[in-house]
Amino acid sequence: QMCEKFTVCENSMEMLLQNNLNLPRVTEEDGDFLTFLSFQDKCLRKISSGLYTFQTYLKYVQETFTSENQNVESLSYSTEHLAHTIRQMVINPEEVIIPDAATQESLRTKLKSSKTWIEKITTHLILRDFTSFMEKTVRAVRYLKNTRSFSA
Fold first, then answer.
1. Domain range spanning residue 123?
2. What does the record list as coiled-coil region(s) (predicted)?
3. Of 4, 33, 74, 114, whose CA is between 20 and 30 Å from 145?
4. Nearest-5° angle of CA 76, CA 107, CA 69?
């Protein structure tokens, strides 16, 4: 929809802008494909922290991609619920990093300071990276579910 409505596509010139959003990522180094319990726990912490961090970015998307407000609101709610659920799977849930209000406000201010044309690209990058993060999250949770006795 972003590509159709705003002509913001992967191959557009604007996409060549440097992505300095510092969006959460899950990598193999986070242990999402390793079998040791400590690495599994590290992966779950990383996923939960990333989902909590994405909340601020999704609020920005909701504010800028107003035609999809309902869908983004639902996505944001589901993301928060998933972050909470995965946090409960962590051995020490208090180790999950949840951005505090000041950090969230600082990020929101930084995102809002963008020019309108950058706003569209930022929204696209957030949604693209969120999709990638969720794909890896699903793979990691399925893997962990098959190697660890918990229900997700």
1. 53-151
2. none
3. 74
4. 30
